[in-house]
Write a structure and sequence with these properties.
The protein is α+β, with helices and mostly antiparallel strands and 161 residues long. The strands form 2 sheets. Strands 1, 4, 5, 6 and 7 form a 5-stranded mixed β-sheet that branches. It is built from 3 helices and 8 strands. 27% of the residues are buried. The protein has one domain: Nucleoside Triphosphate Pyrophosphohydrolase. The longest helix has 17 residues. Its cofactor is Mg(2+). This is NUDIX domain-containing protein. It comes from Kineosporia corallincola.
Amino acid sequence: MATPEFILKLREKIGNDELWLPGVTGLVRDEAGRILLGQRADNGLWALPSGISEPGEEMAFSLVREVQEETGVEVEVTDLISIHTTQPTVYPNGDRTVYVDHFFACRPTGGEAVVGDDESLAVGWFEPGRLPTPLMESQVLRCLAEAEKFAQTGRTLFDRR
């Protein structure tokens, strides 16, 4: 997976210092209620489609682009479920990053679930009670809990309280 050019340019200036980036994650459910997941190439874990917004790109558009690139599925964003800040991530090269993640609900509008780029090993639709392993539990289970809370309240979550 290639690091976006704009991040490489920022890293030239700030080195390994903590970099805050806008992230997007999508909960894509089909009409049967199945969830779209991809098996990540970097760690082998199954996760919700996610990515980084490009400079100047709207968050919902970023997610539509990321889902299509990673999975081949075209989506429509229907709701903003939550916005939260992740714990710092330290990469093997020492780069430190914090993501401000925008978590959206989506519905598929076209395309087929296929591996769309080098970021995924596999892609598929799964029933909520039959999720594949190994699962990126920290992402998927948190997001499913937030989606459930959103479904109950109809309110976007701005923190984890």
